[in-house]
Design brief:
Shape: elongated
Order of helices and strands: HEEHEEHEEEHEEHHHH
Strand content: 15-25%
Largest sheet: 5 strands, mixed
Helix content: 25-40%
Structural class: alpha+beta
Distance between the termini: 32 Å
């Protein structure tokens, strides 16, 4: 992977209370480190200034780790950074959108469990039909395949003989965004998200 691609990789950002508040890029994370407004934080909860992290990088030069190199310095790509002076709290609500619904329901029909890889197979179902007062909110909308949607029609799941895989609810933003990233990121970030009880 070239340096340009590495700089666009994702880094988790924690506030001074060790709560995940956002995801940024490696490039922006390094800018924070250079300015002194952030420290690298590892899954063992140790924090390091940029100078300390550069020294640590020397022990990882010969491994399979991602390292950004310049003529004067090499920096091991951090998975997370810690902002010791930043008090902002993490996001608690996820905006309702089709894309976020796909992520929440993992591209899976919430009635039959079929994985809906093809966009043409996907429909959005109101558990309580709109014609009966059902609202377009997280707790009343699920991803559904066309076959199940046709079977359900303008009825409740019970009336149509269908059963939801799980009760729909608003996702926590941390759990949602983790759906978008590779397993190695999920495994590392989960340590920090579990700390605040925000991962499920």
């Amino acid at each position: 992977m070239n340096t340009k691609n590495i700089l666009q990789e994702k880094v988790l950002v924690l506030n001074k209370y060790y709560q995940a508040i956002q995801i940024t890029t490696v490039q922006k994370a390094i800018c924070h480190l250079v300015k002194g407004s952030a420290k690298v934080i590892t899954p063992t909860w140790t924090t390091h200034t940029l100078e300390e992290w550069i020294k640590i990088t020397k022990f990882h030069e010969n491994g399979n780790n991602k390292i950004i190199r310049s003529p004067s310095v090499s920096i091991l790509v951090p998975d997370a950074i810690y902002l010791p002076y930043y008090e902002s709290l993490p996001k608690t609500e996820v905006v309702f959108s089709r894309q976020n619904l796909l992520l929440r329901d993992r591209y899976t029909c919430q009635y039959c469990g079929k994985y809906l890889k093809n966009p043409k197979e996907r429909t959005i179902d109101h558990v309580i039909p709109k014609s009966r007062g059902g609202k377009t909110v997280w707790t009343n909308v699920v991803l559904c395949c066309k076959k199940c949607n046709l079977k359900k029609g303008d009825r409740t799941p019970e009336e149509a003989g269908l059963k939801l895989l799980k009760k729909p609810k608003a996702p926590k933003w941390q759990a949602l965004i983790l759906e978008e990233f590779p397993k190695h990121k999920k495994d590392v970030w989960k340590v920090f998200l579990n700390f605040a009880g925000l991962f499920e």
